[in-house]
Amino acid sequence: MDRRRVYSALVFFPCFYVLVRYLPPMAFSGFVAAGVFLAQYEYYRFHFPERWSPPMGLGLGLGLLVTAGFALPGLLSDTANISFIVAAVLLSQLLAGREIKSGFLDTAVVAFGVFYIAWLLGHLILLRRLDEGIALTFFLFLVTWANDTGAYYVGSLWGRRPLAPRISPRKTWEGAGGGLLCSVAAAFICRAWFLESLNAVDTLLIGLLVGMTAPLGDLCESVLKRGAGVKDSGALIPGHGGILDRVDSLIFTTPAFYYYLLSVRTP
User: Fold this and answer.
1) Which of 251, 250, 234, 215 is nearest to 113 (CA)?
2) Rounded to the nearest 10 degrees, how much is the dihedral formed by the CA atoms of 261, 78, 66, 235?
3) Global pTM value
């Protein structure tokens, strides 16, 4: 095992615990905004070879706007937010002066990056604002990480049957099954440890939900990387790759977890 993965985790976990447990929600919103910005930048580099370009800047700015909309609920309604994003992306093509065919592709890439990363991952801010938001945030991260870790080790030791050979040859059905079991086990451990308000049925269903959506998020990012011909989204985190490599599962598990909670907690 790459020791850099362990060292990165030893630095991140205490900082993350202090951020979520002791700092105000706005600090956590800033943390999410920074993660969204970096993950979006890595995603845009899949398509835009230059380190900076006007379409990339537009996408990053719109991503921050979406994140701000989650952090400041009265800033813009969801409908206004989406309308502004679509209009801004389309109008940018009139001013960019690029060749029309490539401009159309740029538009799709910019818009997709905003919704894929900023919109979906921004639900972390909404989750943190729920009742017991601190515990729920820890719960989501731990269960998602348990899935990633279980899939990695079970797949490395016993993986034989490829899960999606054309997308990610190293991912296996055995690894996916190990990740699913680890998600369920982690959900029950977290419930007994600090989230007793969850009943056993919800805990089981959430464990299964996270266990199924986490690998989908991973595979979706693998499709993007394979299309771009890169192994990692970046090299910011030693032993792990880029920010997008670390949050790809959370991009899917966060909204799934959040809307499940809304469905079972709303009278």
Assistant:
1) 251
2) 50
3) 0.90
* Predicted confidence (pLDDT) per residue in 38-77, tens digit: 999 999 998 887 788 888 888 899 899 899 989 987 766 6
Residue 175 CB contacts under 8 Å (≥ 6 apart), including other chains: 150, 151, 152, 154, 155, 156, 159, 163
196-250, pLDDT tens digit by residue? 999 999 999 999 999 999 999 999 998 998 888 888 787 777 656 789 998 999 9
Q: What share of residues in the chain are helix, strand, coil (percent, to 5)? A: 80, 5, 20
So where are the chain's domains?
23-129, 132-267
Amino acid occupying residue 181 = L
Instruction: Give the span between the Cα atoms of 188 and 202, in whole angstroms.
Output: 10
Q: What would the DSSP string read from start to end of 173-213? A: HHHHHHHHHHHHHHHHHHHHHH-TTS-HHHHHHHHHHHHHH
Q: Which amino acid, 81?
A: N
Output the six-digit token pair for 33: 């905004």
- Beta strand 168-172 with 162-164 is antiparallel
Query: How many angstroms separate the CA atoms of 4 and 175, rounded?
Result: 22
Q: Which of 19, 45, 12, 18 is nearest to 33 (CA)?
A: 19
Torsion of CA 231, 236, 242, 246, to 10 degrees: 130
